[in-house]
Amino acid sequence: MRRYLVTFFLSFCFVLTLLNLAQAQSKKHHAPQSAKLSGTVFASLQKVNPENIRAHVRFLSHDLLEGRGTGQRGGDIAAEYIATQFALYGLKPAGDKGYYLQKVPMVGVTPGDATTFSLVTNSHTTDLKPLDQYVAYDETQKPQSEVDAPIVFVGYGIEAPEYQWDDYKGVDVKGKVLLMLVNEPPSDDPKFFKGKALTYYGRWTYKYEEAARKGAVGAILIHKTEMASYPWEVVRNSNSGEKSFLQLDGSPKLQVASWVQLDVARQIAQYSGLNIDKLMQDARSRDFHPVALPVRLKARMVSKVRPFTSNNVLGILPGRDAKLRDEAVMYTAHYDHLGIRPDMPGDNIYNGADDNATGCGIVLELARVFSESAQKPRRSILFASVTAEEQGLLGSEYLGKHPPIPADRISLDLNFDDLPPLGAPEEVEVSGAERTDFYPTVEALAKDFRLAIRPDSRPEAGHYYRSDHFSLARVGIPSFSVSEGMKFKGHDLAWGMKQAEDYTEHRYHQPSDEYSPSMDFTADAAMARFGFALGWAAAEQSKLIQWEKGDEFEKARMGNEK
Ligand SMILES: [Zn+2]
Q1: Would the pTM of this model clear 0.85, i.e. be above it?
Q2: Ligand 1 centre from 389 Cα, in Å?
Q3: Which of left, alpha, beta for 476 (phi over 0: left; psi -120 to 50: alpha)?
Q4: Separation of 427 CA from ligand 1 center, angstroms?
Q5: What is the pLDDT of residue 177?
Q6: What is the C-alpha to C-alpha distance for residues 493 and 488, in angstroms, rounded to an integer?
Q7: C-alpha of residue 8 to centroid of ligand 1, in Å
């Protein structure tokens, strides 16, 4: 508690600047509402209480919620809990007509025991072991699919005209199974796949989408820890048991969407008389050409297919400006996690305390504080807790396609995902904010909050494409996540780094991501306050926020591209 007071005192001085900023922005065209505004904002920030965030996290990550699995009872209870809080705060329902819940039509696909997955050559048939050697789903959502197709190594599986890169070279891969690397060709040149940073081309979702667009029946991604930036455990945990998909909407899908361990890829290469390291090396060249391998994938994909409905939870606080209240600033945080694995021995509940009860706690606290503020911001504030993030950003994808306010009238999305309760932060991460014309405000506010902006600590991990703000960016909404950096008060940078490493190794997407009373929610409260100030400024400024010129999402904002 004491720490909290100290932090708050430090951020006291920011209020004046926030006031000046709001004034500067409103002076141009509007009568200043400064005195009142500053009082409101100041009072609101004071009301943010880390112990409220703790309470939400404690409940949402309780064993009784069974890991908030998508399509599982615990996930539905979490959604109802969040809807109830929205109602208590007096938010207006913004889901399906008159409801806080927005139904998201989904299909659960569980690979069955009868599934087989074999590598076949003239002389060998090797049956691979599920989970240990491979994971695979049938995206076509059929109970049974038979695949018997030659494997083609397509390098990184990327076709990116803007970087003059094409791994396919026009080769017809219709009906084939494509073996490929995750990530993208390595480079430090910022003009080439953004240098060290990962672009969307490096993400596994892109690889599946592109393979399906080209008519392939299957894709096999090669897992190598350094390249994927997460261990096989993560692949395995996110790809076993039931996995959810949005109901088919006509876009092409793969019968085999799979990952294999590096050793399996090594074996495939060996069967072909080739060396996997050499193949991977060749793939780094612009001149790479697809390699047809004398190996077939013979798979019988047997799946239990379960249509169901999950829910996004949406509440809105109408803005005070009669004209601007048709526009909104949005806050998002996914509430789902990996659920429960009844067949797993020992602790089989993926509580998801950090990931992402913390983000939900922050958005709930923001909703409370906004709704209790004496004066409302000019634009409306939309609060969205979305489902099925862990299944591939599905709830937010559906929200992006079916927003309660048209996407081109949503000025900004601020997303909160996995904010470790580690004490008072001295840094903030806002990766992606620099792609928008809102960045000067972000910088000014960070300064006022005495938060150093930490550049993406691992741009090569492609975090921008790994949380829900990305789904909203894809439909054009300027979006980014807000999170602590690595430096915390009373600790050196190395300590923060070590915490992050420890989390990735020992808790991330594991049953051990659990609530503990020793957690210090000062961090989450600080991010909520900062998020409040950002959202308030965005809701007050006269113009809608836009992407910087040439950004990959600019076209979507202008309605030129889906
Ligand atoms: Zn998450």
Answers
A1: no
A2: 7
A3: left
A4: 20
A5: 98
A6: 7
A7: 27
